Amino acid sequence: MEPIGIDVHGDGEWALIHRCTGCGTIRTNRIAGDDQELALLQLALRPLANPPFPLDALPVPGR
Known about the structure:
By secondary structure, this protein is α+β, with helices and mostly antiparallel strands. The chain has a domain at 2-45. The protein is built from one helix and three strands; from the N terminus they run βββα. The protein has one helix at residues 37-49, and strands spanning 2-8, 14-19, 26-30. It has a three-stranded antiparallel β-sheet, covered by helices on one side.
């Protein structure tokens, strides 16, 4: 299984989204107390650090 994202439920609980490297099935699993917090944050911030579009193409408010 490969971690691919984080899901945050309405009550604030986090779940790890992972994909099977064999069949491609995607599943979620609640995070555990012994999960590495830094690794979870890095996974959650991945879309912001590497957006799928160029940020300089976005319009700047007020311009």
